[in-house]
Amino acid sequence: MRHFSLVDFSVRRPKLIVWTAVAITLLFLTQFPRIQTDTNPKNMLPETSDVRVWNNEVDRFFSLYEDTIVVGVQNDADVLNRETLGRIARITDEILTLEGVASRDVNAFSTITNVSTEASTLKVGPLMPGVPQTDAEVDAIIAHIRRWPGQKRPTAPSPDRIAGNVPRGKTLYERHCAACHGTNGEGGHGTGVTLSRPRSAPILAPALNNPGFLAAATDTLIKTTLIHGREGTPMRSFLKQGLQERDINDIVAYVRAFEQLPPPPGARVLESESPVLVRESPYSLKRTVEKVQAAVGAANMRLIRVQTLDQGFVAEGKENQGQIIVYSCDFAFLNEALKVDPRVGLFLPCRITIVQQADKVLVMSINPKRLSRIFNNAELNEMCEQMHQVYIDILEETVL
Ligand code: HEC
């Protein structure tokens, strides 16, 4: 008896084979619309990862959408004037018409529901029903906002100084604070409370010798923290723990004196030339994008997607094809960095931007060394340096 041969069978029954292949292809095609692309870097972390679990919890709790966009308006001469309010109303109207925007959750002067009492009846309506036409109407809005409970006329923080005895403060600091905040105010290991940090993690004592903290915190803020403590954290009121106001003043003066010392290694900031790394490409825009993709692969990063800079912000088909972003990620590295400080997530996934400017094609990325200033975390510095090298390699490889 002869063995069954698929080749012989196919040659004898060509029609059957072709129709079977067509049927299988069609079967797969029916599944095509169900294919989903998920490029959210969060979902690339293990499901049990602290960052992902906590982030999901926050999303659920606040019914958040995947993306929330906050638009800030700055006008040194004050935003509450007819022209700026008019512009805000126009921008809001435009935003409401964008596809994909959850319009019921757009909060702006012209959309936010304002509840007030007028002649003992409840009045519910938008805060700014139309663009104010007269200065009197603007004043009415301002007066109304000021009436909201807890609203005080904003005052600039006074550069207050609390006088105290520094050497005495040092002794007290060493006895009462150093165990948590470190001998030199360098803080506990790791980072403090952040939005994406799991609540179950211990609250760490922040660095007090951090130049960013000292520049932002007034003496009064430090003193108030010592007097009242921070409820629900290990930072307890020192007044209740037996210190006198005079002791507290001395400690404040000592903490302030950290400013005079050279920045500690824990707050070392990497030197960086500029916030962006830029190279000029000798190739066309299209070829440069291809070369970036290849260079990303060579750097052992996974390519996530390639899109125009303005995709999603302008009508489909109207995107500027002269500005392209290549997104990529190194997941092992990402996981390590997020463990040190979840704020790293703000800068992810990694992106390389390619733009056509007149007859030049530029390839650029952020300079990760600059991030070191924002994080103020010596542990992250090494990672910032590594990322800096990875970006440089990709840019150089691209323009080679
Ligand atoms: C048991 C540990 C512990 C001790 C002791 C302690 N702190 Fe704290 N401190 C913390 C923690 C934790 C926080 C963060 C609280 C929070 O998240 O609001 C904090 C917050 C602070 C802040 C606010 C920092 C900021 O960024 O807002 C200051 C200032 C401060 N501590 C100063 C001191 C001083 C000065 C002493 C000594 C008199 C002291 N602490 C003693 C744990 C401690």
Give the biggest beta sheet: 5 strands, antiparallel
Give, in spatial order, the strands making up the sheet with the most strands.
Answer: 3-7-6-5-4
Proportion of helical residues: 40-55%
Ions, cofactors and other ligands present here are: heme C
CATH architecture of the largest domain: 2-Layer Sandwich
Contiguous low-pLDDT stretches (5 residues minimum) are none
The radius of gyration over CA amounts to 29 Å
CATH class of the largest domain: Alpha Beta
- SSE succession: HHHHEEHHHHHHEHEEHEEHH
* Gross geometry: extended
Distance between the termini: 64 Å
CATH topology of the largest domain: TATA-Binding Protein
The CATH H-level superfamily of the largest domain is TT1751-like domain
Mean pLDDT: 83
Compute the number of strand runs.
Answer: 7
Number of self-contained structural domains: 4
Number of helices: 14
Secondary-structure blueprint:
Elements: H1 6-12, H2 14-31, H3 50-61, H4 82-97, E1 113-118, E2 121-126, H5 135-147, H6 166-176, H7 178-181, H8 211-216, H9 219-228, H10 245-257, E3 276-281, H11 285-298, E4 302-308, E5 323-329, H12 331-340, E6 350-357, E7 360-366, H13 368-375, H14 378-399
Antiparallel strand pairs: 1-2, 3-7, 4-5, 5-6, 6-7
Helix pairs in contact: 6-10, 9-10, 11-14, 13-14
Bound molecules: heme C.
Heme C (HEC) binds next to helix 7, helix 9 and helix 10.
Output the keywords.
about 400 residues, 4 domains, Cytochrome Bc1 Complex, Chain D, domain 2, alpha+beta
